[in-house]
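Subject: Interface between my chains keeps coming out wrong

I've been trying for a while to get a sensible model of this assembly. When I model each chain on its own everything looks fine, but I need the whole thing in one frame so I can look at the contacts. Pasting all components below, labels as-is. Any help appreciated, I'm running out of ideas.
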Amino acid sequence: MGMQNRSEDYDLIYSMIMLIPKGRVATYGQIADLAGLPGHARQVGYALRALPSDSGVPWHRVVNASGRISRRFDPVSEEEQRILLELEGIVFNRNNKIPLEEYQWKP
DNA sequence: GCAATGACGCTCT
DNA sequence: CAGAGCGCCATTG
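Reply #2:
Try treating it as a single job with all components included. I did that and got this:
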């Protein structure tokens, strides 16, 4: 017991992300910790990359520890994330960073 | 099985 | 405070 396969880990990660309230954000590392996978922040990124577009998972509420939108292959996806967050009332500062002290979700 | 990769993060400069 | 360096570890070829 204890060993988990990829899809089980991914489902666990998705369920944690679904707990993030609208208008708040969480970091990759934070989600990994909540999913019981400390030190697996990168796996959260893999899980989000594998996410289909029609899932109900609020993927846009996950940002990196610097409060910035992480770079990826498709820049359009980065822009989309910013738009979605701004629509929820999140205001980026002049360095394109989200003030985590103000917006980070604290369960 | 091994090497490269990456939607990460912490430390040091 | 921004950027480089390094550690981390599942995933990919």
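Reply #3:
Confirming on my end. The first strand of chain A starts at residue 26 and ends at 27.
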